[in-house]
Please model this.
Amino acid sequence: MIQLIRGFKDILPEETGLWQKIEKTAISLFESFGFCEIRLPIIEHTELFARSIGQDTDIVEKEMYTFLNKKDEFITLRPEATASVVRAYIQHRLYAVDPVQKFYTIGPMFRRERPQKGRYRQFYQINAEILGVDSPLADAQLIFMLVELFKRLSVADISIHLNSLGCQQCRPNFKKALQKYLSNTSSTLCSDCERRKINNPLRVLDCKVLSCRETMKDAPSIVEHLCEECSRHFETVKDSLNDLNISFEIDNRLVRGLDYYTRTSFEVQTGSLGAQSAVAGGGRYDKLIESLGGPSQPAIGFAIGFDRLAEILAANNTDVCCKPDLFIAALGEKAKTMALQCSCALGLAGIKTETDFSDKGLKGQMKKADRLGSGHVLIIGENEIVEGLVVLRNMTTKEQVSLPIDGIAENLKSIFAENKKSL
Ligand code: AMP
Model:
């Protein structure tokens, strides 16, 4: 038996209804905030990720799925979407039309992490990115939109964690302060942080290993090292979020795992997920576009962990996508032919219809209709065909009515619409 590759998973039909609902809610919200969809390839040149995410990050150091293609070029299954969004913005000179571009994109990402609940090797993200705007008001607007999505999906128990990572001017000072702190402490760090403490000491701040957390308890805070401009930016983000009634917590440990972040960084955490508590994360990346060869344009974005969001909502999920409105039970060969005609006509009319073309008797077909959760069954028998009639059975009230076969689609549509109204 060939099984799934470790860390990969199937999203089965019983779950896809919920996935579609999340997707539709996000798309409708993002579009009303002026975002347009961009679809990007899942494979890019390795260099794109190495240069943007950063050489000393977990993702680039050990988690990327990288292959040599036939031309001996390194290509990588994308571990995240922002780098590709920026590449497309530069490659297609989208900034020349208007430097301000707002995109959303939804799709799979690949990271070779240790698989566990909430952490997969192929997982899905919903991204929204604003390119070309440096105003802190855009940061607040983006976070507002993210929070609104969680509200519309009725996700309870979320908290917004907010930090500023400074800029190229002030971050080096903070880095030095951290390095100094780390060189003066005798506590033990995990092997990864021992390595990072020289090149990427910021990453030690958000390491989850207990001994590292303990070591970093009294570490200097980045907020105390922000330059005047970064400080002002951060203050405006906080004030604007307050004005928009968005609650947040300042979290000076929030450095995020990707090197390209500058200034505002944020994460949405939830109590409903256990160890993997981050359901979305994002921040500014004001230098990324330029560093990838584009114009000097600032940007900000977020990525929602689609799988984790679906896991939170799964407990109360009733959005089964394949539940039919109608099941056609046909008795006898002629009736089956009629069932085929009817199912095609009803499908075209937008009525979710299921038919069983096997030789089951009426009892077996009714059982199947029940198992599928069909609201109604249309019974077609040989006698009824002669009379030009079919029987419609309401599976909840058990009421049955005879209806003419002629005009059945229109007839059913108005019956279902009436039923919906009276619900
Ligand atoms: P990141 O791109 O690392 O900032 O992650 C953004 C969001 O994607 C996180 O908050 C998670 O919800 C989700 N995420 C990241 N890595 C994984 C993974 N391996 N499996 C499932 N979800 C993930």
